[in-house]
Design brief:
- The protein is α/β, with parallel strands linked by helices.
- The protein has two domains: about 1-255 and about 460-480, Aldehyde Dehydrogenase, Chain A, domain 1 (3-Layer(aba) Sandwich); about 260-440, Aldehyde Dehydrogenase, Chain A, domain 2.
- It is about 40% helix and about 20% strand.
- The protein contains 16 helices and 21 strands.
- The chain has helices spanning about 1-5, 45-60, 65-85, 85-95, 100-120, 160-170, 185-195, 210-220, 235-245, 270-280, 300-310, 330-350, 385, 400-410, 425-435, 470-475; strands at about 15, 20, 25-30, 35-40, 125-130, 135-145, 145-150, 175-180, 205, 225-230, 250-255, 260, 290-295, 350-355, 375, 395-400, 415, 415-420, 440, 460, 475-485.
- The strands form six sheets. It has a seven-stranded mixed beta sheet, sandwiched between helices. It has a five-stranded parallel beta sheet with strand order 9-8-7-10-11, sandwiched between helices.
- β18, α15 and β19 form a beta-alpha-beta unit.
- α5 (about 100-120) packs parallel to α6 and α10 crosses α11 (about 300-310).
Length: about 500
């Protein structure tokens, strides 16, 4: 199938509007089958230098293009993505493993982001304000930062890239993008779409390679003034430290240890649907995936019974099969990490109710599969309740009250997404006030963010910036205050005020 969907066997960097040979490559394998889909370049710091030099030159001209005209490019990008949605979705499933249903949703997210950010081309609002002196005008406006670097993960290879690149481009910046080596095809396809949509050469540049070479070179490059990163906490902390040393703006979106709270008055059938979807969709490989269920002790046993019944219905396999609901784990390293946490959970005293093992046999040969897993009787301080596992694993933590549920939810180092199932309106409003996460869901799971609202979290999840929504523009713009004095004389603010 890869040969019929993909028009190349080896990818090349996209720099200055040209596809450039880079030398060393590494295979990209379909995690469902082990098949090599394409070869991806292993670029060097020199390739980054070339991309940045090209981007720096292109950005000066791009910033002078009126923002509504910049937005027209994004409109064309969105329409091209819409025309090619099914092909892009199948390619995404091939390189990432997520089931087609979810791949289509991710591509749609990119389409939505294109149209939304195109709208910002006719806004990019600043502010006017009364000046304190006569015959004086005061306002603030957004200005592009210059060259921005975006570093994106493998689990959402096109959606997260659009969250970052589209606002950057419409705001007048040029982009150097390092996609994950596990999932480079979406970057190749999106670069081709931008090329076809008429984006000037050099405004978007794609440099494939490892974080230790390409990513590190981007972070250290003096002419990249913004780094927008989604990935692990350890890497994010290192990036933040280096960007801080350079006084470089940095936006981080990292891990999550997201919980669904199920109260004693909850609609349990609805809660089960929400838990199963947000815990086992994308095989749990989402930063917003539900990995904890904080359940009132009065309904714990019933919830367990219903969860186990629904988990038995899950179909597992190659995501290109429309009947499959749970796809593979991205690679062996991801699989080994999940397996390690199975032993940790059992040694800590949690009770394993379902799953807990790698799936092997004829149906799963050559891929990386792990059974949807349910622990119960976990305590809030267990490692499986505190640490991000990034797999189809969920732990039930019983509590005695609403207040305890809030305390347990907030008692982790992350703060991305949370959810509560309850019919009590008072609890709904208390929960949305007291849950210390950047995203709160009521009577829904922990996944499903929409592109017109800010995406990001508190505490160890990030550093206060947001992807998506109009707030994403704050990452890629600087505020400039402008004063126009038409009095014909020198007026001194604060001093010449009566």
């Amino acid at each position: 199938m890869s040969q019929t969907l993909l028009d190349v066997k080896k990818l090349e960097n996209f720099i200055g509007g040209e596809w450039l040979e880079t030398g060393n490559t590494t295979p990209v394998n379909n995690p469902a089958t082990g098949e090599t889909v394409v070869e991806v370049p292993l670029s060097t710091a020199e390739h980054v230098n070339q991309a940045v030099a090209t981007a720096k030159k292109a950005q000066k001209e791009w910033a002078l293009v009126p923002a509504p005209q910049r937005a027209e490019v994004l409109l064309r990008v969105g329409n091209l993505m819409k025309e090619r949605k099914e092909r892009l979705s199948q390619l995404l499933t091939m390189e990432n493993g997520k089931v087609l249903e979810e791949a289509r949703g991710e591509v749609q997210e990119g389409i939505d982001m294109a149209f939304y950010m195109a709208g910002e081309g006719r806004r990019l609002f600043g502010h006017t304000t009364p000046a304190e002196l006569n015959d004086k005008f005061a306002m603030s406006v957004r200005s592009p930062v210059g060259v921005v670097g975006i570093i994106t993960p493998w689990n959402f290879p096109i959606a997260i890239a659009t969250w970052k690149s589209f606002p950057a481009i419409v705001a007048g910046n040029a982009v150097v993008w390092k996609p994950a080596t596990e999932t480079p095809i979406m970057a190749y396809e999106l670069a081709k779409i931008f090329e076809e949509a008429g984006l000037p050469k050099g405004v978007l540049n794609v440099v494939f390679g490892k974080g230790s070479s390409v990513g590190d070179a981007m972070v250290h490059h003096d002419d990249i003034r913004v780094i927008s990163f989604t990935g692990s906490n350890d890497t994010g902390r290192n990036i933040a430290a280096e960007c801080g040393r350079q006084l470089k703006k940095v936006s981080l979106e990292m891990g999550g240890k997201n919980a669904v709270i199920v109260m004693d008055d909850a609609d349990l059938n609805l809660a089960v649907e929400g838990i199963v979807w947000s815990a086992f969709g994308t095989s749990g490989q989402r930063c917003t995936a539900c990995s904890r269920v904080i359940v009132h002790e009065d309904v714990k046993e019933e919830l367990e019974k219903r969860l186990l019944a629904e988990m038995e219905k899950l179909t597992i396999g190659n995501g290109l099969d429309e009947s499959i609901k749970v796809g593979p784990i991205i690679n062996k390293a991801g699989l080994d990490k999940i397996k390690k946490y199975m032993e940790i959970g059992k040694n800590e005293g949690a009770k394993l109710l379902a799953g807990g093992e790698e799936l092997t046999g004829e149906n799963f040969k050559d891929g990386y599969y792990f059974a949807p897993t349910l622990f119960t009787d976990a305590t809030p301080d267990m490692r499986i309740s505190q640490e991000e596992i990034f797999g189809p694993v969920v732990s039930l933590i019983p509590v005695k009250s609403f207040e305890e549920a809030i305390e347990v939810n907030n008692g982790v180092s992350y703060g991305l997404s949370s959810s509560i199932f309850t019919r009590d309106a008072n609890r709904v409003f208390q929960a949305q006030r007291d849950l210390d996460t950047g995203i709160v869901y009521v009577n829904a799971g922990t996944t499903g963010a929409e592109i017109h609202l800010p995406f990001g979290g508190t505490k160890g999840t990030g550093n206060g910036h947001r992807d998506s929504g109009v707030q994403a523009l704050d990452v890629f713009t600087e505020w400039k205050a402008v004063y126009v004095d038409y009095s014909g004389k020198l007026q001194r603010a604060q001093i010449d005020v009566d």
